[in-house]
Amino acid sequence: MNLKQHTIQKPVTVSGVGLHTGVIASMTFQPAPVNHGYKFQRIDLPGQPIVDADVDYVVDVSRGTTLEHNGARVHTVEHTLAALVGLQIDNCLIQLDGPEPPIMDGSSIKFIEALDDAGLVEQNALRNYFEVPSEVRYRDRDRDVEIAALPLDDYRVTVMVDYNSKVLSSQHASLNDITLFKQEIAKSRTFCFLHELEALFKANLIKGGDLSNAIVIVDREFEDGELDHLSSLLGKPRVSVVPGKGILNNIDLHYANEPARHKLLDVVGDLALVGRPLKAQILAARPGHAANVEMAKKIKKLMRETQKPSIPVYDPKIPPVMDIKQISNLLAHRYPFQLIDKIIHMDESSVVGIKNVTMNEPFFTGHFPENPVMPGVLQIEAMAQTGGILVMSTVPDPENYWAYLAAIENCRFRRNVVPGDTVIFKCEFMAPMKRGIAKMHGQAWVAGQLVMESDMTASLVRKK
C-alpha cells in the first residue's frame, strides 16, 4: 500500500448515460491538492455546488448510493469511488454536468482506464490511514446480512453472496492486495435478477439500464410474450435466453463469480465514504448498499471516538520529503545554525520538520554544561526554519528570496529538550499569505508530548 498521497497528473473525462436517472452526463476527474479527499461537483447547477464523498451525506441506497450536500445530489457514486480507491488515489475533484456518473459497462474498468491515462502523481504528504483498532460489526438479522471489520496492517476484502437461487449459487470473492483491484475486480459488472426488472422500472429506477451495462440473471421460467415485453423495457429489438445458461441475451461472464466480485467492488466504493484509506480485514456476507453504508457509519463513528490529537507521526524508515541537502539548497542557514535535519511532510498550508538533538550540539558546551538543555531561543529558531521552508515553497523561485522571522507571540515552553530527543516541529498557516507576510502557528513534540508552541510572523523579502 502507498505511503504517500496521490492525485492525477491531468484532467480526464468520461461520458455516458446514468444507470438510474437515464441522463447523459460527462464526468471529469480533476487533480486535487493534498488532504482534499474525494469531492463531487455539480457544474450544471447554479453556483456549481460541491458534494463531499462522505457517509454523513448519504440520502438513498435504492440499488445504488446517493449523496446530497449543499443542495445538490449525486446518484450511484460507488463505482466511481471504487476506481479511485482501487488505484490508491487520495485526492480528486470529480466534476459532473448531470445528476449521475455514467454507468459505462456497469463496472469500474472504464474509470480505471481513464485515470490510468491521466497518470498518477505522488504528493508530499503521508496517507492518513485509519487502522481499525478493534472488531467492528454490523448485522441485519432480517436480511441475514453481516459485515465485520477486523484489525489488520493492510486492506483486504472478502465477500460472500447467497441468493437462494438455483441459477446463482453461493459465491465468494476476495481481494488480498489492493494493487490487484484493476486486474481482479474492476471489470465485474452490476447485475440484477429477472424478477426484479419490472419492479425496478416501476420504482423509476434503471432508466439508463440495458444489456450493455448490466447482467440480468434469469431466475424463473418465461411466459408467452414476455420476451417481447422485456425487449421493449430494455430498448432492444429482441432478447433471448438459452435454457440452462441463466443470463439474459446469453452474455458471457468475465468470471464465474462475477456477481460476488461486483459486490466486493460495491463494498470498496461504499466504504470510501468514511473519508480516509482503511487498514482492515473486511468480511461481508450478503452485503448491499444499505449495509455497506451502515458499516461505513460505524467505522466513521469509531474514527471520531479514537481520533488522537494531531501529532505528526515520524517513521525514520520512510524517505523524507526533503533531506538535508535539499534543505540546504532552500535555506541559507549553515553550521552551527542549521537546525533542521529533514522535512517529512509538506502541503500548501503546513510543514513538519525533524530535529535530532545530540550531545555534540555546540551550544551544550556553554548552555548549562552540567545540565544540558536546548535553549528555548534555538527551539524557536528551529521552528522558524521549519516554517521558513513552508513560506519559501509558496514562490516558484525561492532562491531569489530571504525568509525573515518578524514576530513571536504566545510562546510557551512546556518541558525541557535534552540530548537524545527527536523533536517534531509542525507549522501551519493561520491565514493566507498577503504581500509576503505569513502568520503561522507552530508546535513541537518529543515522544508525543508537547514541548513548546508559538505563533510566528514571517516576512518573505526578495533579494536585491
From TrEMBL:
Its EC number is 4.2.1.59, 3.5.1.108. GO terms for biological process: fatty acid biosynthetic process; lipid A biosynthetic process. One of its GO terms (molecular function) is UDP-3-O-acyl-N-acetylglucosamine deacetylase activity. CDD domains: FabZ. It catalyses: a UDP-3-O-[(3R)-3-hydroxyacyl]-N-acetyl-alpha-D-glucosamine + H2O = a UDP-3-O-[(3R)-3-hydroxyacyl]-alpha-D-glucosamine + acetate; a (3R)-hydroxyacyl-[ACP] = a (2E)-enoyl-[ACP] + H2O. Its main location: cytoplasm. Zn(2+) binds at residues 79, 262, 266. Signal peptide: none annotated. Keywords: Cytoplasm, Hydrolase, Lipid A biosynthesis, Lipid biosynthesis, Lipid metabolism, Lyase, Metal-binding, Zinc. It comes from the Bacteria. Pathway: Glycolipid biosynthesis; lipid IV(A) biosynthesis; lipid IV(A) from (3R)-3-hydroxytetradecanoyl-[acyl-carrier-protein] and UDP-N-acetyl-alpha-D-glucosamine: step 2/6. It is found in: Cytoplasm. The active site is at 289 (proton donor), 367. Pfam families: FabA (PF07977), LpxC (PF03331). GO terms for cellular component: cytoplasm; membrane. InterPro entries: FabA_FabZ, FabZ, HotDog_dom_sf, Ribosomal_Su5_D2-typ_SF, UDP-acyl_GlcNac_deAcase, UDP-acyl_GlcNac_deAcase_C, UDP-acyl_N-AcGlcN_deAcase_N. Its cofactor is Zn(2+). The keyword 4Fe-4S does not apply. Catalyzes the hydrolysis of UDP-3-O-myristoyl-N-acetylglucosamine to form UDP-3-O-myristoylglucosamine and acetate, the committed step in lipid A biosynthesis. Involved in unsaturated fatty acids biosynthesis. Catalyzes the dehydration of short chain beta-hydroxyacyl-ACPs and long chain saturated and unsaturated beta-hydroxyacyl-ACPs. In the C-terminal section; belongs to the thioester dehydratase family. This is Multifunctional fusion protein. It comes from Siphonobacter curvatus. The lineage of its organism: Bacteria, Pseudomonadati, Bacteroidota, Cytophagia, Cytophagales. The gene is lpxC.
